[in-house]
Amino acid sequence: MPYMVATLMTSPCFRLSEHVRLLPRINGWFAHPYLISPLTFGLYTEHSHLAMMESFLEDPEQHRAALREPDMRGGPFIDHAGDVADIRKLRDQTLQRCAPQLCTAEAIAALYQLLHSEAKGAGLAGLYGKIDPLIRDKLEIFYDVSKQPGVRFMERQFYASSAYDPGLQTAVLEPVSEQERAFALSTPQLPSAAGSLELSVPFADPFWDQLCGGMPDADALVDLILRHAPAGTTRAEALALLTDAPLPEHPAPEGVRVRYFGHACVLIEGAGVSILIDPLISYPGECAIDHFTFDDLPAKIDYLLITHPHQDHVVMEALLRIRHRVGTVVVGRAGGGDLQDISLKLCLEQCGFANVVELADYEELRFPQGRIVGAPFYGEHADLDIRAKLVHAVELDGKVCVLFADSRPPMVECYAQLKALFPKIDCMFLGMECVGAPATWLYGPLLQKMLTRGEDQSRRLDGCDSALASALQDFFLPERLYVYAMGAEPWVTHITSILYSEDLPQFREARQLEATARAKGRHAELLFGRCEITL
To answer: Which residues pair with 136 in a beta bridge?
Structure first.
């Protein structure tokens, strides 16, 4: 099938301007998978959001002083320079409108305490009567083969319960600027910028496709916006968010083209097929460095691949904006019931994606021009049993790209089957953020037994160092190796908290890999900002 030039509409198409951010929120906070899932939302609300808000209200200046230290940027400190009453209002609203979710979190915590104290090896049937009725019909308790008790949560049933409230889902539209954005995991996203507007629309609503995909009638689109906007919003304010600028054309690439959009976002195009991985995309005018934007995406994204459920790889700010372009989403298959291993398939289906496919290790999705193969994703999840993660191998028109994201295998031989499937790799992307955060930085609200400081510091969300990266290059012998997913582009730091510096250990490791590869006559390159490759 020939690659078609993207010309969505020849008549004027009014849509959300590329100079306006779309910031999805859940109860006022940055939307990420563990907030979307009703299984985990209450735990994050109680043990992260409410805890930080109470701390801020007790001593706002302590938070502000901490944030004056760059090393504290990713810590549990709220970056709010406005009225303290804003945070108090959000705290009070949270206690009121999230009461069902907080009750669910308490029931889950009580369940784990029950298993810890009473499940000693004897039959478990008698324990069901002691489980909170709020969750009792949505789970199964069991023993593993080592006599350790466990629980299988039936996550889909939680989406059908009071624990899931799509009414908590909103989005803020605000003008793009170069102003530094507050760290997303510790600061609520309150509308503050001049010209910003909050819309109370669940993520699954077709409205977002109409807003981002466009409509020929500006008045009709403005009417839709005003239906969901705060009272008093004027037509002029709504119209200012829109554009009817001609949509860019995207001529067919010669051969297979690979574009790096920053962090872990890669676009592979060729033979009439477009494949986008881990979309996290910048806007025009957001920063001074050269970068691709939403305007550089094709009109149709045939396959959208997600590597793992971290907040810098499942970015609703990008996903909701491009949903109308997406054909099939490919995610890793969750284990089916562990608290920490939420289903990305369920999550994205509840966010309005119509065709989400799960792949297990070494399963493949074939199409006429090639195939997508899922390979094991090792480590980088603080040694928790999380299975909704995949390395993606993409074969397109005879060319092979493998995207490892942050996978950190214990030994290169773990990928022997992947090497057998793809003995020749044209392009290999490897994450080397080898410092990482400790387990509690992301997973603290889920842990039912606290870690010691030593345990916490040893269980990190880290990728490959130079020694492992070099060993992987020796093992696979790719034509080209690119280091990516370092979290340092200006449009990523509000999610990763990493501020680019060549003095950081992870960047020193990446430079060491480049030097080692050069000495062997091989290619290794640290990416930053943007890159275009023709295979």
So the answer is: none
**Tens of pLDDT along 450-486?**
999 999 999 999 999 999 999 999 999 999 999 999 9
CB atoms within 10 A of CB 137: 11
441 to each of 44, 47, 129, 436, how far by Cα in Å?
A: 12, 12, 35, 10
- Break the chain into its structural domains and give their ranges: 16-98+165-243, 99-159, 257-533
How many whole angstroms separate alpha carbon 50 and alpha carbon 52? 5
Asked whether the whole model's pTM tops 0.85, one would answer: yes
Contacts of 79 (CB under 8 A, 6+ apart): 63, 67, 182, 183, 186, 187
How is domain 257-533 classified at the architecture level of CATH?
4-Layer Sandwich (3.60)
Q: What are the tens digits of pLDDT across the range 159-204? A: 999 999 999 999 999 999 988 899 999 999 987 777 899 999 999 9
CA angle, 290 then 296 then 298, to 5°: 160
Alpha-carbon dihedral sign for residues 341, 169, 72, 46: negative
Q: For residue 310, what is the DSSP state?
A: S
